[in-house]
């Protein structure tokens, strides 16, 4: 499906003004009240269309993982909306929320800590089917065996425990657990960052094969922009809890607009030593999300910072076709 046709349709997931603040207690703990807030995710909006992969990239601590967990209601939002079809996920509870979670699954960064060490793999994979009342005992076992085969696991793995597997195999188990209930959307939270490079490529290829076969929609979170480029149709760049740029993948790499995105891409190694490029070195430390800078959050490290950047937060504009950026350099007069 073309990008134009995809954009003309109603999005499968529509996130609007998402905020997630974590309270910071004073020195007396609960008795001292809330001292301040860590603004982990601060007014993020994006759309995810059926069948596409939206990659989310940024430095560690920028709020990528918190955003993914908040969308799934693994942690409650501070503000904002997240529409799956016509339903706002943040307004649901009980059975309604459980129904949505069948359609939206997550693959976690650390596959070992997300698997119950006391249960065999077969039990772990059948548990989601039991929770959502899918099939009888025989049908659940057959479904699990089928999904194990799809992700490259053997039949005898059904009876083993998580500690008997390698990191790559555990991530395949995590992927099988997410897909066994036949979801529409899979949020992958740094699914390959803990794996060897050779295993990373296997998991990425597996994700793409499964997406084509089951018509999956991915929100793919990672800090390695090279991995994100390989799998994503579009990329969103996050900095200090905010989305500073969104664009189709090739458009972003061909013409990065935000100074932070330019710095990220300049750090990507080039295989051809003949093609030299100048690396952009950002000065200073990343500000604390507990006390973000006024105006543009990036102005303290931006090589193009102007006076207006210190005073006013830039609005998000479409600087090029389907290329959104929040930067005063591109603000329309």
TrEMBL record:
Supply the InterPro entries for this chain.
AAA+_ATPase (IPR003593), ABC_transp_ATP-bind (IPR050319), ABC_transporter-like_ATP-bd (IPR003439), ABC_transporter-like_CS (IPR017871), Oligopep_ABC_C (IPR013563), P-loop_NTPase (IPR027417)
Where, by residue number, does the polypeptide cross the bilayer?
none
In this protein, which residues make up the domain named ABC transporter?
Answer: 13-265
Q: Does the keyword ATP-binding apply?
A: yes
The record, for SMART domains, names:
AAA
Q: Does the keyword Oxidoreductase apply?
A: no
The entry's keywords: ATP-binding, Nucleotide-binding, Transport
Known PROSITE patterns for this protein?
Answer: ABC_TRANSPORTER_1, ABC_TRANSPORTER_2
GO annotations under biological process?
Answer: peptide transport; transmembrane transport
What does the similarity note say? Belongs to the ABC transporter superfamily.
Protein name stated in the entry: Peptide ABC transporter ATP-binding protein
Species of origin reads: Brevibacillus panacihumi W25
């Amino acid at each position: 499906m073309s990008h134009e046709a995809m954009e003309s349709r109603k999005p499968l997931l529509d996130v609007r003004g998402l905020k997630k603040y974590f309270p910071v207690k004073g020195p007396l703990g609960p008795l001292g009240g809330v001292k301040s807030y860590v603004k982990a995710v601060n007014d993020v909006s994006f759309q995810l269309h059926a069948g596409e992969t939206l990659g989310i990239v940024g430095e560690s601590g920028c709020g990528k993982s918190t955003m993914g967990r908040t969308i799934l209601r693994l942690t409650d939002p501070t503000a904002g909306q997240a529409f799956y079809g016509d339903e706002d996920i943040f307004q649901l509870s009980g059975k309604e929320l459980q129904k949505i979670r069948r359609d939206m699954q997550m693959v976690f960064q650390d596959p070992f800590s997300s698997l119950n060490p006391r249960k065999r793999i077969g039990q772990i994979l059948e548990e989601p089917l039991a929770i959502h009342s899918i099939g009888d005992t025989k049908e659940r076992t057959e479904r699990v065996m089928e999904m194990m085969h799809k992700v490259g696991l053997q039949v005898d793995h059904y009876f083993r425990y998580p500690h008997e597997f390698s990191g790559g195999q555990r991530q395949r188990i995590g992927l099988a657990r997410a897909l066994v209930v036949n979801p529409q959307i899979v949020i992958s939270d740094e699914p390959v960052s803990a794996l060897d490079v050779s295993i990373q490529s296997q998991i990425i290829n597996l994700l793409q094969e499964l997406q084509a076969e089951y018509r999956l929609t991915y929100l793919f979170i990672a800090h390695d922009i090279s991995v994100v480029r390989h799998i994503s149709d579009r990329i969103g760049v996050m900095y200090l809890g905010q989305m500073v740029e969104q664009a189709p993948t090739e458009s972003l790499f061909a013409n990065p607009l935000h100074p932070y995105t330019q710095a990220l891409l300049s750090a990507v190694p080039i295989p051809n030593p003949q093609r030299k490029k100048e690396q952009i070195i950002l000065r200073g430390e990343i500000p604390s999300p507990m006390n973000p800078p006024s105006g543009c959050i990036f102005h303290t490290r931006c090589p193009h910072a102007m006076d207006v950047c210190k005073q006013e937060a830039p609005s998000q504009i479409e600087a090029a076709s389907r290329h959104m950026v929040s930067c005063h350099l591109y603000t329309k007069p």
